[in-house]
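agent: user wants the full assembly modeled, not chains individually. Plan: 1) parse entity lines 2) check alphabet per entity 3) run joint structure prediction 4) return tokens. Steps 1-2 passed, two entities, 790 residues total. Proceeding.
--- entities ---
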Amino acid sequence: MKFEFQNPTKIIFGAGVLARLGEVVRSHGKRALLVTGGGSVKRNGVFDRAAASLKDAGVSVVECSGIEPNPRITSVVRGAEIARKESCEVVIALGGGSTMDASKVIAAAVLYGGDPWDMIGHGQDNWAIPTRALPVITVPTLAATGSEMNSGAVIGSEDLKVKSFVMADCLFPKVALVDPELTLSVPRDQTAFGVCDLITHVTEGYFNGIDGTPIQDRFAEGVILTAMEWGPKAVADGSNLEARTQVQWAALVALNGWVQVGTAFSPPVHMIEHALSAHHDITHGAGLAVVNPAWMRFAVKARPDRFAQFAQRVFGLSTTAKDNLGLALEGIDKFEDFLRSLGCPTHLSELGIADELFSRYAEDAVLVVRDENGNLPGRPPMSKADIVEVLRSAL
Amino acid sequence: MKFEFQNPTKIIFGAGVLARLGEVVRSHGKRALLVTGGGSVKRNGVFDRAAASLKDAGVSVVECSGIEPNPRITSVVRGAEIARKESCEVVIALGGGSTMDASKVIAAAVLYGGDPWDMIGHGQDNWAIPTRALPVITVPTLAATGSEMNSGAVIGSEDLKVKSFVMADCLFPKVALVDPELTLSVPRDQTAFGVCDLITHVTEGYFNGIDGTPIQDRFAEGVILTAMEWGPKAVADGSNLEARTQVQWAALVALNGWVQVGTAFSPPVHMIEHALSAHHDITHGAGLAVVNPAWMRFAVKARPDRFAQFAQRVFGLSTTAKDNLGLALEGIDKFEDFLRSLGCPTHLSELGIADELFSRYAEDAVLVVRDENGNLPGRPPMSKADIVEVLRSAL
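--- prediction returned ---
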């Protein structure tokens, strides 16, 4: 293990902490851009509560609503124009992963003279990774992406049918104000997709990281076991605040770096899924539910011991009378069973995706992150043919 | 769960990173106070390597050596005087927990006009918790206290025979430069005590935190399981760099807040041990090895299910044909067996401590942290009589 790590975001966590939004924002600025998604926060009253807290604290607010579920660079451009015109000093993300990701890039785009798409890696020669941004306060309304406490953002281009990412220290939110009550009204399917999303964040590091990371392994297993214990309860009864709390905390921890630190992992499942959602506008977590088990069955042969460990520690499967590969495959079956039990799709056909564009998805998956052979990094690295094979197995 | 959390310290981790000390320090100042302990870093060449790196980076160095194993406020006063007189801009802690703790308080004392003992909680009316400090860079040479990446420091008064603590945001080190190679020469007994220390950090939160923290439970178990896997290897063969690396990482994670976050725990075992080491100058980790199992047998009745979980998940003990209390007690026996197998003492007699001062230790243990009834907080809260009972059981 050899690495550097820092995550300066302050967490304020717990049911009811939304009431502190104004006070928190006020310490970063008096004029805020309040970024929201499709309108659920207005329908369920969260927006009004946030607005009241901001008003009480003396923060004036300019709105940027309508961030898409797979956020587009056009929305970033629009948000940055509003923030610049209105002299906003701080950006508030009130929504799910797409709203938070868009907010981060808006916060950087406000201070960037060029086209914000320059900041998103898409195979360009000069990736303008941002070095400064307005302060961002995240207020997640969905337990899924973990974007509330990390430096990453995923943004797509509708024109190019490309969905890609940026990571930069300046994009760490100043504060993640995490109130599980805000997730009580999340529909059953989105709750399930969120659970799948958070689990996939840790499986990427668990299966694609370096050897010799025993604590990180245990932490990843801990997140998965907790998500498997509490996720179904949140899906079964959305009003269960305890379940919502545990799932929300699991989602934050799953991608704030504490689990994967030092593993130097690559996320092949995410790269493949981004290609799918760029073309089909599916929910990221649903796409991951399809790609991850298929990828696991492809990757298991490269690392049967690691998959056997997963089968043993996560599903309590026994080593007796089985070789590691058999045990590993049984663990993958159990994992897919779990996803299905949550209500997640595990086949492309369930997402309405057929095989016409498989080679395009494979091209897109290696657009930004590829090794010296042009392969998608991971364990094992994947050629474009491998990617197509995995997708075909998921039909 | 309802909490706030932030840990801004940057980690630079890995064998060989000591060579980067100069570069790291230089970004925080040109003139450094270099704080060290009893001289092992001079004998094993680490000091010279650190000094060379600092010189190459253009950092001038003033030394403050001789920090005691249980660091004293007199050393803090001395260090702060040197730093002030020599206009140091940054403090480097090159040593174990005592050196790091002293360095943090020195860094605050430099900017404090009063007696530095005001900053250490010892029952005073006005606890002068520091609000500013020089930047601190920690370079641990021992895997134990986790002080390299947290905001706490434990300092004692030789005159008063009191050992107590301070926690303050300004004491978070800017960078924890963690090079497991520096621990290769740590003697076998100190290695074992370090393993006990780190495990005790997570057992405190695990047994004394609130209910309903499943991820934190899993993280704690993960740290313990890793320490139990790799600790004995580091004790058996101090030159095993892989074992040193895993133990070092476990020690850092065990008290940087990632495990206990949100558990709102109190650390009764530490409070009792501090009373012992204030009077007897024993190694903290050795004192914990004595107090922790004795405390567990006292506390088990208050929370048998939690201790049964510990027995199951950490030691793989089975629930069949036993009640939870029986299972729990078996787990505690196994834990004590593990400590003994490492070479740790588990009786006060092994530390040369008899019962003469038991009531004084009990007084000291509640000097700073006590509930409205004057008891030591924890699960369960402990009266002074309880503390004496636990100590008596450890004779």
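agent: reporting back. Chain B is about 45% helix and 10% strand. The longest strand of chain B covers residues 3-13.
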